[in-house]
Amino acid sequence: MAINNTAREIASGMAYLHGMDILHGDLTAGNILLSSADAADARGFTAKVADFGLSRVMVWHYPDPKPLLSPKPDPDPLTPASELNLIR
User: Fold this and answer.
1) Scanning 15, 28, 37, 48, which has its CA 20 to 30 A from the CA of 83?
2) CA 81 from chain center: how many Å?
3) pLDDT confidence of 88, banded at 50, 70, 90?
4) For residue 75, with 0-12 CB atoms within 10 Å meaning exposed, 13-18 middle and 19 or more buried, which class applies?
5) Residue 53 CA neighbour count, 13 Å, CB half
6) Within a domain: 88
7) pLDDT digits (tens, 9 = 90+) for 43-65
8) Does any domain span residue 24?
């Protein structure tokens, strides 16, 4: 159950990034951080996606659906990362 919850948290963070048209570019075990969780979580930690050094923002040009990569990411700075399993 703990592995499933951890995988779900990582997938949730990646789904958020992809929904914002951001490619992480370097998802590895070393880029997942574990932060302390409240007592309600039996694992005692929450997984957070980190290290956005290779991330890119997808730029879509319609009607051609092929994406182009921008040189630097431009995430929404007002989105609270703590709610999205992203490192602050």
Assistant:
1) 28
2) 9
3) very low
4) middle
5) 4
6) no
7) 889 999 988 888 888 876 565 55
8) yes
